[in-house]
Design brief:
Chain lengths: ~100, ~100
């Protein structure tokens, strides 16, 4: 079973990511994105969805028009694991 | 400029839709959906996204794995309009 990262491990990993932050009220990380319009926002979501399915690790996310708010956590570990970091790194790689 | 529906009009329209309900804290309608898995949920979202773009009227929505929570409101009218009803009717037409 996958283990959640320790506080130190998480801080180290967050430092390598681009503007992801810890969620205050739960054991998760989060980043918000703003695009030019809905087409660009949903195109981005589609790229993430395909990758997430391949990784078998899925985001929780909210979209309104050009905005996307992504929260990552590993249900099985009840916290942030290397799977969340890997998905976040992919998301960073396809965004500015 | 598009006008928001009156309370009576909205009730009449909601009665024709499938399990959409008024949101308590704001002037919007909402429905939640549950699918077999993420593939099915995101496939559904993609169909809605394409239709929304065609209508130039977009949902606010949240997805976590097999669940999708959709809120519809017309920003320009600060409330629920016939555009929301039309998008809700399309969404109903592609779901059970």
């Amino acid at each position: 079973m996958i283990q959640k990262l320790t506080s130190d491990e998480r801080l180290q990993q967050l430092a390598k990511l681009n503007r992801w932050e810890s969620v205050a009220e739960r054991d998760a990380i989060r980043r918000t994105f703003e695009f030019a319009d809905f087409n660009e926002a949903f195109g981005f979501m589609t790229r993430v969805a395909i990758k997430a399915q391949q990784m078998d690790h899925h985001p929780e996310w909210f979209n309104a028009y050009n905005k996307v708010d992504i929260t990552l956590s590993t249900h099985e570990a009840n916290g942030v694991t290397e799977r969340d970091i890997a998905l976040a790194a992919f998301i960073d790689s396809i965004t500015v």
